[in-house]
Amino acid sequence: MAYEKKIPVDLDCPLRLTMSLIESKWKSCILDELRSGNPMRPSEIHKCLPGATPRVLDIQLKELVEDGLVEKTIYPELPPRSEYCITDLGKSLLPIIDSMLKWGTDHYEIFEKKYSK
Amino acid sequence: MAYEKKIPVDLDCPLRLTMSLIESKWKSCILDELRSGNPMRPSEIHKCLPGATPRVLDIQLKELVEDGLVEKTIYPELPPRSEYCITDLGKSLLPIIDSMLKWGTDHYEIFEKKYSK
DNA sequence: TCATATACCGAAAATTTTTTCGGTATTCTG
DNA sequence: CAGAATACCGAAAAAATTTTCGGTATATGA
């Protein structure tokens, strides 16, 4: 059986629901990369997020697809090709991603001073 | 030595920075509980978030204090009393928490149908 | 021919987070 | 007096996530 997420989406409270969709290490970054709406291949996404291993991107893309935030198209070619594209539901999360990006930018210095080196 | 967070705040990108401050299981909920600005005792917070164990609240409150999002006051009384209060920096995250709360409320049905039972 | 690239997957290891349990000390309640 | 409540902490166990590694298959380019 394929890899399976242990903790499913959290239906207990709306805040936890939203968090559970994006809280893993790279999901918000993946959505941010896909924000333009242009489809991206896994290898492209990996180039944009070199800190993530291809394996973890694979796993998290799969979950994003499962949750309906991202859509996958497989082209029956060789070598294999597939593309991932943000869905309307995924796009509806972008304002949240945006505000986190802005907050992080605005408050970067505080944490840089506090935690760097 | 006291408990120590393994993964520190992520300074690599602003989005990850913000996420790393709130992505653990209960931090966003704790901030939401403290939103009014009124100080709360740990036992009160636990009553509001019964799904979390006192231990994990303790650990995450400690990290929130360390990151400057929450302030702690200890009263030298017996039995012990302490209070946690959201800081201005923590308050500045509330619009993000709000938008996640709203998103979760607006899209609850989709996931309820998909994942419940 | 050999290495590389492609997408993906399984399995195991490593890491991190969360839970569980027990213990500190004191006060109050039954 | 026994038990609960209070806040917190350490240690170990459990659970979840992420990394690492190797393997599938085929095509292209050196």
Would you write up a description of this structure?
The structure is a homodimer of 117-residue chains. Chain A has 117 residues and is mostly helical. The first copy, chain A, has one domain (14-115): Arc Repressor Mutant, subunit A, CATH 1.10.10. Chain A has seven helices and two strands, in the order H-H-H-H-E-E-H-H-H. The first copy, chain A, has helices at 14-22, 27-33, 42-48, 54-66, 88-91, 94-106, 108-115; strands at residues 70-75, 81-86. A two-stranded antiparallel ribbon of chain A has the order 1-2. The radius of gyration of chain A is 16 Å and the shape is globular. The A-B interface holds A 8-9, 11-19, 22-23, 28-29, 32, 51, 67-68, 89, 92-93, 95-97, 99-105, 107-108, 110-112, 114-116 and B 8-9, 11-19, 22-23, 28-29, 32, 51, 67-68, 89, 92-93, 95-97, 99-105, 107-108, 110-112, 114-116. Chain A binds a DNA duplex (30 and 30 nucleotides) through helix 4.
Summarize this structure as a short list of keywords or feature phrases.
Arc Repressor Mutant, subunit A, 117 residues, homodimer, DNA-binding, mainly alpha, 7 helices
